[in-house]
């Protein structure tokens, strides 16, 4: 099967590259696109020999009970009970045994138990092997990064880590509404960004402040400057967009029944000491929850600025979330007593996709309460929220990454944002 599998892989990959408008992939990028989405890839699994072996063995486990019931023979026991050199061994059994031995040798994958084999055991075994093959691919990718110059190595590691987690949901959603639509041009830019390919052709930053001052700094093609350029206002494009999206999901006309969102509330217990140390949105009347103020931050996992982000997925998102919580204390530092009747939650996202733990928890809670209120399947509703929010972040990324002019600060949003559940038009 291998030649056909290779051919199939080639066709799929070439088609994908044509769609995303990429001419060629480096060795590292080829491995990255084949990784699952949750591991920072593009989910374009390839049919390696080990993958074919995995599928063949798990299929054998699936049919084993039926074969036993039909003809009284056990599948998959040749290696254990029969003489390996026996003449009467069927070619099927011999082939199965070779596949099992290969996986044992190459990836230390344990021999499946064919005596207990059924659909469930087959699925569990195939899943654990798939995880192990993914881990091997990630080690291989990491070895390629290790051989690169120090800066590229760190950037590559930080990027793939930052691409992982549920923030990759934008790559696995149907564009069924404007909330989950990403234009073709934006999609191409976002996937190039994910793979570490250049997204910007110029060499000088084109950004201009609201006051008309040019940034003029040297600009790298991968977007590290553009995404952190303060005159560019890219920060606000992502920040305000994601606040508006979460507000709309929660308290828009089709949100959680009864929930209210108030954009840019003044919260007297957190005086505005520094810029940003003020909640962005207040959520009230959430079913079964305290009123919650949120503050959003979209950060770029750049090892030059944050050296730890190349070591652990989500390091930067968590770091930013902790800072936001320090700015908006709910509990007394000494006594650990609750000081306020309301809660605070940081909406902390990394540009490549990773979300902070508390952000994931909060979104899950909101999505679940909408699902409960409207009788929807909670896991599907949670996935929809992941999709809508991650699409919003990637749309704003694309705008910034191509160096298109973004306003220094968008026109101020209405102060009472989606208040009292009224249907406001979101033009963002
Ligand atoms: Zn700039």
Q: What structural category characterises the helix and strand content?
A: mainly alpha
Cα Rg? 26 Å
Widest beta sheet: strand line-up = 1-2-3-4
Give the helices and strands as they follow along the chain: HHHHHHHHHEEEHEHH
Secondary structure tally, helices: 12
Number of discrete domains: 2
**Low-pLDDT segments, ≥5 res:** 409-428
Q: How much is the average pLDDT?
A: 87
Helix content, binned percent: 40-55%
Number of strands: 4
Shape call: globular
Bound molecules: zinc ion
**First-residue to last-residue Cα separation:** 50 Å
Largest sheet: 4 strands, mixed
Would you give an account of this structure?
This protein has 428 residues and is mainly alpha-helical. The chain has 2 domains: 159 residues, no CATH class; 254 residues, no CATH class. The chain has 12 helices and 4 strands, in the order H-H-H-H-H-H-H-H-H-E-E-E-H-E-H-H. It has a 4-stranded mixed sheet with strand order 1-2-3-4, sandwiched between helices. The longest helix is centred in the first third of the chain and has 28 residues. The radius of gyration is 26 Å and the shape is globular. The chain starts with a helix and ends in a 27-residue tail after the last helix. The relative contact order is 0.12. The C terminus is likely disordered. Zinc ion (ZN) binds next to loops.
């Amino acid at each position: 099967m291998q030649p056909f599998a290779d051919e199939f892989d080639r066709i799929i990959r070439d088609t994908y590259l044509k769609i995303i408008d990429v001419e060629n992939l480096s060795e590292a990028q080829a491995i990255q696109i084949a990784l699952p989405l949750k591991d920072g890839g593009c989910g374009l699994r390839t049919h390696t020999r080990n993958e074919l072996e995995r599928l063949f063995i798990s299929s054998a486990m699936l049919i084993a009970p039926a074969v036993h019931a039909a003809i009284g023979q056990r599948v998959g026991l040749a290696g254990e009970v029969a003489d390996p050199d026996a003449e009467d061994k069927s070619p099927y059994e011999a082939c199965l045994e070779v596949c099992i031995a290969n996986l044992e040798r190459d990836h230390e994958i344990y021999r499946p138990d064919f005596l207990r084999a059924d659909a469930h055991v087959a699925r569990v075994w195939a899943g654990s092997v798939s995880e192990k093959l993914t881990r091997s691919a990630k080690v291989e990718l990491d070895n390629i990064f290790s051989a690169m110059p120090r800066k590229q190595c760190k950037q590559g590691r930080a990027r793939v880590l930052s691409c992982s987690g549920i923030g990759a949901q934008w790559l696995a959603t149907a564009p069924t509404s404007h909330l989950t639509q990403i234009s073709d041009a934006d999609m191409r830019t976002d996937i190039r960004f994910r793979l570490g390919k250049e997204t910007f052709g110029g060499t000088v930053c084109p950004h201009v402040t609201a006051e008309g001052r040019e940034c003029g700094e040297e600009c790298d093609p991968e977007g590290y400057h553009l995404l952190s350029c303060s005159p560019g206002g890219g920060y606000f494009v992502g920040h305000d967009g994601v606040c508006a999206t979460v507000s709309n999901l929660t308290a828009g006309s089709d949100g959680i029944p009864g929930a209210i969102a108030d954009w840019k509330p003044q919260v007297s217990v957190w005086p505005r000491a520094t810029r940003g140390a003020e909640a962005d949105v207040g959520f009230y009347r959430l079913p079964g929850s305290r009123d919650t103020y949120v503050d959003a931050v979209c950060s770029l996992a750049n090892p030059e600025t944050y050296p730890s982000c190349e070591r652990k997925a989500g390091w930067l998102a968590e770091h930013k979330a902790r800072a936001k919580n320090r700015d908006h204390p709910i509990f007394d530092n000494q006594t650990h007593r609750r000081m306020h009747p309301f809660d605070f939650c940081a909406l902390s996202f990394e540009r490549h996709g990773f979300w902070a733990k508390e952000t994931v928890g909060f979104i899950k809670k909101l999505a679940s309460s909408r699902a409960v209120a409207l009788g929807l399947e909670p896991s599907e509703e949670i996935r929809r929220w992941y999709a809508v929010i991650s699409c919003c972040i990637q749309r704003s990324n694309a705008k910034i990454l191509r160096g298109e002019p973004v306003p220094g600060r968008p026109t101020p949003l209405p102060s009472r944002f989606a208040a009292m559940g009224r249907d406001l038009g979101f033009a963002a």
